[in-house]
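Researcher: Let's run the pair from yesterday's discussion. Sequence first, then tokens, for each.
Model: Starting with the first of the pair.
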Amino acid sequence: MSTSGLRCFGEGDALYEEYHDTEWARPVHGDQALFERLVLEGFQSGLSWLIVLRKRAAFRLAFAGFDPALLGAFGTADVDRLMLDASLIRNRRKIDAAITNARALTRMQAGGRSMDQLVWSHAPAPRTHQPDSFTDVPATTPESVALSKALKSAGFVFIGPTTAYAAMQACGLVNDHLATCPVTGDLPRSPAGLR
């Protein structure tokens, strides 16, 4: 990463800086990797992303590495166990959604469909310029609305257009690093072209 200028977010916290510099807005592929990001974005809803980031290792352990077949097999006893785990965000609705979504992904895969293809088919055209401030970054876009609908039609829950857009940012479908951010120049101009 270039060292000139301040990051557009994450400055001052080593974990957050690492996420900003090496993950956010960089293309993510593969069903399991995309599924993990989608689940974590659901857990972030209403909270700071840093809270989720600090708990990500615990989520990976508790959620069977985000393996959709393993997580989808979780039952009521597993949910009760997870609700007692202080290393996680203990929200029953979000935990239930993660399990439901694991089952939906497993059904998709059994039907020969890929989450990677579904998600990346909603990548927008690349920007001609980076936003100057986060007030220039939308909470939703027509593409995130369409992605949310496509995921819901595949059986996913707890995935509205705002969560879908956050996942698009996290997975590199869009690059919302600010124009002044030192990472901006390190990223490809067209993440959608890296499928």
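Model: Moving on to the second of the pair.
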Amino acid sequence: MKKIILFFIILLLLAFLGQIAVYLFYPDISQLKWQNPKKTAFMEFREKQWAQEGKRKKPHQIWVPLSQISPYAVKAVIIAEDDKFWRHEGFDYEAIQKALKKDLEKKAFSIGGSTISQQLAKNLFLTPKKSIVRKIKEAILTWRLERQLPKRRIIELYLNYAEWGDGIFGIEAAARRYFGKPAAELTAMEGAKLAAILPNPLKYHPLSETGYVAKRAERIYQIMVKRGIVIPEYDEVMTGPAKEPSPLEGEIQNPEAPIDISLP
């Protein structure tokens, strides 16, 4: 009897290892160097949720290259989600250690501290359901993403497939939905507000003027100011309402009249 039980335990262990090992080779991540997925695993997961709830919805996403995304927004997202993005190789071990410590204190499983690369792996190929198995799969896929794609491509994919609200995927769709403009025109504060809701885009709204989102967005913005990414005075001038030019600032009223440029 003991031998039979041991045999089934070994079979289950082999099946478990096989389920995980397949992610060492599948899917073909190299195609992501030049191909943009039409639909992600996260999108399919949401579609199933909507169907179960009787909702006839589809994910709304508009692809844009990284060059057409406001640098302010890109930097705000990196500051908020993964400040070591350009330096690490897929994992922020210090953040993982802190997250594990919190889990032990709360006696709950969450394992936070995910990098942008880890979040991209989850968004593209997995689901938001939390489990040890999913985290192992996520780690394998993250390792492969980091070794086959340049950082610029990873952040480009992430910004285009991150969830920014119910049915809203990608920063272009989010910018148009919340601010009525393309992602290329997002200001530093608008980028900070979008970055602020990424931890829970179904719960938070970027236009909230009080509470968690407002405080987090202001903190992200102030970090950009401190690092010299944003110069408030310049930002205010560039985003403020345009004024009518005076005759001296606009066109010369009489182009044939001589202009006195001598000093007094």
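Researcher: Give me one sentence on the second I can quote.
Model: Residues 47 and 246 are 55 Å apart (CA to CA).
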